[in-house]
């Protein structure tokens, strides 16, 4: 398979890329790294990327941002950071990418445990995650040519514990190989419209 | 209680307004009707409305739109209709309205069954609904002065069956008095962060 991994140099993306590279042709897209440049908040950048790489068998997205801050301090523009990047960036990867997807191919988006179990300062991130979950359930009804779509929603991953532990009191870290398995289930499995929740004790 | 009902002249809002008017002071906001004018996709309009009405005990929102169309035909701008109106319109009602809310007051937002059980042509509407569900779960952790927030997610309501039945094959219509009860539960009850699902057999 020819697999595009958006954010393939990130905390989760690098482990996902390393795994798929063993058996598949992997193309990594990143803002400042990887094989092709991509700013996922910029639709023209998504268009240009797909024109460059052509037909593919799978798109995996482990990228996208949203602003973490207290609700009282979040401006409307702050909410649009997540809307343009993690939300519409992923919607646009599907909207545009479906025209480059081979029959039977798959999209695998990513969110996080916040969508189901938010913590303080995550109104924007939770909102964007919940949006993607419902989007995946809706769009799987309409994709053609047996193209599938799923989303991996992971708890606090082991490799991010050092930076994020204080935000997630009592959350059990998720081992990286389990998170990677979420993406493997989506790409190499047969399901569609699935929210693959990689949580531990929630 | 002094209750602001956004969309209080709509299909659901008119029944909700009629009910609360029996026991409470109700102010209806609408684009072209009601006691105060409001375009909920316009943040300045929300600011002006709250300046006009002053302190309140409850905000109920039964308004907001999103584009219904096949995923293949939805442009990026089409998705932003729902993002600006049903999604950020409701977020902004909370973001701005919390400064006018009396202690112990409540917000009650609205979505629909699409967020959990989408049907064809609802990628945008489902996405926006899922976003609001997760937003409510996140923001309830941060609201101060015992201010509560819930969301009523209703199935196809009886009064909309004639227009929408064909979109919802096999969905059991929800009687209007049950939908109204969802809003009563939120406004007069004690819960917060609740997604009040008014579904029948889903």
Task: Summarize the structure in words.
- Two copies of one chain form a homodimer.
- With 202 residues, chain A is an alpha/beta fold.
- Chain A has a single domain, classed as NAD(P)-binding Rossmann-like Domain (Rossmann fold, 3-Layer(aba) Sandwich), CATH 3.40.50.720.
- Helix content of chain A is 39%, strand content 21%.
- Chain A is built from six helices and seven strands; from the N terminus they run βαββαβαβαβααβ.
- Chain A has a seven-stranded parallel β-sheet, with helices on both faces.
- In chain A, α1 (11-21) packs across α6 (176-188), α2 runs parallel beside α3 and α3 runs parallel beside α4.
- Chain A is globular.
- The termini of chain A are far apart.
- The mean pLDDT of chain A is 97.
- Chains A and B meet through α3 and α4 of A and α3 and α4 of B.
Strand and helix layout:
The structure is a homodimer of 202-residue chains.
Chain A: E1 2-6, H1 11-21, E2 25-30, E3 36-37, H2 43-53, E4 56-61, H3 76-97, E5 101-112, H4 123-139, E6 148-154, H5 161-164, H6 176-188, E7 194-198
Parallel strand pairs in A: 1-2, 1-4, 2-3, 4-5, 5-6, 6-7
**Number of helical runs of chain A?**
6
What coarse outline of chain A follows from CA principal-axis ratios? globular
Largest protein interface, residues of each chain: A-B, 40 and 40 residues
> Which whole number gives the mean pLDDT of chain A?
97
Secondary structure tally: strands of chain A: 7
**Radius of gyration of chain A from CA coordinates:** 16 Å
């Amino acid at each position: 398979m020819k697999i595009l991994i958006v954010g393939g140099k990130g905390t989760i993306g690098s482990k996902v890329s390393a795994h798929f590279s063993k058996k598949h042709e992997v193309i990594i897209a990143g803002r400042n790294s990887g094989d092709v440049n991509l700013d996922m908040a910029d639709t023209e950048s998504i268009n240009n990327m797909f024109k460059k790489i052509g037909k593919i068998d799978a798109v995996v997205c482990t990228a996208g941002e949203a602003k973490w801050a207290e609700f009282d301090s979040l401006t409307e523009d702050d909410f649009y950071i997540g809307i343009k990047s993690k939300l519409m960036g992923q919607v646009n990867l599907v909207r545009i990418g479906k025209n480059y997807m081979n029959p039977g191919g798959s999209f695998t988006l990513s969110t996080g445990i916040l969508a189901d179990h938010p913590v303080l300062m995550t109104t924007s991130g939770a909102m964007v995650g919940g949006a993607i979950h419902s989007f995946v359930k809706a769009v799987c009804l309409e994709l053609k040519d047996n193209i599938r779509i799923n989303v991996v929603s992971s708890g606090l991953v082991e490799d991010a514990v050092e930076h994020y532990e204080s935000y997630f009191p009592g959350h059990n870290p998720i081992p990286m190989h389990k998170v990677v398995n979420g993406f493997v289930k989506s790409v190499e499995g047969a399901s569609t419209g699935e929210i693959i929740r990689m949580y531990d004790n929630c």
